[in-house]
């Protein structure tokens, strides 16, 4: 059950800074961060450009602590056809292997679609949607997801697609009605001839593969 002092709100420009802070702090200790040398500031630099844009679109949802005003969770939603911000290509070298593995995953996903994906067809909650670690496993992600489904339906999207970096997240997505479409194993992925993510499963057995999953918008809400 969601905490009584947490309220769901559509992301607006007033919450950009607090949403970026939530993402940066949530991912700063992530195994991806450790293997890539990423700090909270790197996550803030990367996510900030997406959060700023999303705050003008009325598609993304945040969980706000009504006591102190902090953002405790973010579900950053975009149209799958939305191009990445120009600043994305200017990120530090540390991001390049991560960009490469996600690019390979997305190419595999698109290859499995028998027809061209149209704008306003697929809603994409971005990978760095998150809940602060201390508030996880309290049903908050399901609340954010349900609100996102309502918004997606209002904007006439018909499918939602998301990435999963761990086994438990993939299982949770399966329970939400998602099915796996494509995957990339960390230990076999090559970046410039090197298995840069080979250490991930050893650091945390949950990290075996990066997957992309989808489900119809109208498959039902999450209880």
Automatic annotation (TrEMBL):
GO MF term (any one): N-acetyltransferase activity
Q: What's this protein's name?
A: N-acetyltransferase domain-containing protein
User: Could you name the domain of life of the organism this protein comes from?
Assistant: Eukaryota
- Quote the InterPro entries the UniProt record gives: Acyl_CoA_acyltransferase (IPR016181)
* SUPFAM superfamilies to which the protein is assigned, alphabetical: Acyl-CoA N-acyltransferases (Nat)
